[in-house]
Amino acid sequence: MSQHNVETVQRVFGAFGRGDIPTILDAVSEDTVWGFNVRDSQIPWHTSVCGKANLPQFFGALMGNVDFQVFEPRDFIASGDSVVAHVHMEYRVKKTGKPVNEDALFWWRFSSDGKIASLTHFEDTAQVRDAYQG
What we know:
6 strands, globular
């Protein structure tokens, strides 16, 4: 199942790069949970979203606030029902024009039916906060 899960994550990243939200929604469970490993953040896209129906608001918050120059998944580590992806990102915060250049980890967890049950982002939150606040 691990290789299948890696392929699913790669397919989701490809869909994200194309702005293909329906393909992403096809890969997730009805009760999927997506968010960031932060508490009490003032960053609009550092929000948790519960449920497939609410996932488009996650993408809206992100894409409404940043302009990506680079979004490059580099490495994938699979174990059991989890895939961790190392992703290099470079973007500008629309509000301030400030850049973010970071490597992040995306921890994907899968349900028994092979759908994405959750995603937690781990990133350089201080750099993102500083870029957002200007």
